Amino acid sequence: MKQRPIPSINLARLIREGGSTSAKDEIWDYIALPNERIPLVGPAVWRVSVTKMEGEGGVDFWLSGEIAGNALMECRRCLTPTPAAVRAHFQYLLRYQSGLAHLEAIEENEEEILLFGHPDLDLEPLLSEAFALELPYTVLCKEDCKGLCPVCGANLNEVDCGHQAKTHSRLEAELSKLLDGLKD
Questions:
Q1: Which of 7, 33, 32 is closest to 22 using CA atoms?
Q2: Own/partner pairs for 95-99, CB < 8 Å, 24+ apart?
Q3: pLDDT in tens, 138-175
Q4: pLDDT recorded at residue 132
């Protein structure tokens, strides 16, 4: 299996001299989260820009960017793999602290600041979090998806299994009365 490149941006020049820098690339196959992977249909395209700022707590950086792609999710009715468009915009306040192994979040003056300790800033956790937060709760393969048969589990979009969904006559009668009452 081919090694998957980890998206990163080198901030060494910014740390020394200031200014701004930007980067863009694509993520293929999946978005990696700590305990799961979000499969992709095609690439997820990302871009970021970072600007050095002089802050109260030292040298800070403002990172902003976006990631857009199609996540492969399951249709909520029939479980068919279905692409879902995702576009996420994000912004982070960063602070460089030499020697830190991983990103750390702190709160200062009611603001969240991400501390990083290596000039090659690993963007994968930031991109992954932004993408995951914008995933839709559910998707449909098509608006009129018929779902799965409650008796045999067949995909009713593909076959007519002939089963009738069980209805409870007493419940059906009560619902009918309730609906008739609403019409009046």
A1: 7
A2: 95/55, 95/57, 95/58, 95/59, 95/60, 95/61, 96/11, 96/15, 96/59, 96/61
A3: 999 999 999 999 999 999 999 999 987 666 778 878 88
A4: 97
Between CA 105 and CA 95 the distance in angstroms is 10
DSSP string, 69-104: EEEEEEBTTT--EEEEEEEEEEEEEEEE-TT-SS-E
165 by Cβ neighbours in 10 Å (0-12 / 13-18 / 19+) ranks as exposed
DSSP H or E segment with residue 122: strand 120-122
Q: How many CA atoms lie within 13 A of 39 on its CB side?
A: 7
Domain borders along the chain are 8-145, 148-184
Contacts of 152 (CB under 8 A, 6+ apart): 161, 163
- The answer to whether 160 and 133 are in contact (CB under 8 A) is no
Distance CA 120, CA 134 (A): 26
